[in-house]
Amino acid sequence: MIDLYTAGTPNGHKVSIALEELGLPYELKVLDLAKNEQKSPEFLAINPNGRIPAIVDHDEDDFAVFESGAILIYLAEKTGRLMPTDRKGRSRVIQWLMFQMGGVGPMMGQANVFYRYFPEKIQPVIDRFQGECKRLFRVLDGHLKDHEYLAGDYSIADIANWAWVRTHRWSGIEIDDLPHLKRWRDAIRARPAVQRGIERPPSKIDLTRDGDEKAAQFAQEARAMVEMGQSKDAAPPAR
Q1: Taking the domain 2-79, which CATH number applies?
Q2: How would you class 125 by CB atoms within 10 Å of its CB: exposed for 0-12, middle for 13-18, buried for 19 or more?
Q3: Alpha carbon distance, N-terminus to C-terminus of the chain
Q4: CATH code linked to domain 87-197
């Protein structure tokens, strides 16, 4: 059994989707980021960085893993699925996983902070982060023009990137001009395990659309977290 410490954010959903795809039994441990539960001594003993997600694998002597990308690699290697075992195939998957970890996630997280949560609207900063997000989306679109998935077969690289890309509207970015990215987004969204994963737990709001009262309320709560210095946990939240 695996304990998944998580919240309804893209990084949290990366792991719940993978667990659902792999059919691994797990227990959901939902943390309330607004209440700073991710900073509790109990959770810091699992993840010293005080961020979600993290897992504890009770089948492996209560082995703890933090950082969403590291968790995905661990689960893929544990099961021998969602990542090839040959050196080149494994490298391709990890390259696209790192593309998300080092690019898509951080840039969308910052776009969310300045577009949605920061009390002052600094347009050059918003333009900077939204522009970099769109550039990264174009990279994905160009690659997906000739590939069904990012790294051969469907893999943890697709899961990681998809969990963020699907929330593009929350970052103020449209992808109507990126047909290959849209095709890939929709194909992954149709997978039953993915549908289950994004409900474990559900986001407080629908991050794929915008403009209703719940979205405004969520943005206000996240803004308070930003002002308290917790912006990375307020992911489109940014985590």
Answers
A1: 3.40.30.10
A2: middle
A3: 24
A4: 1.20.1050.10
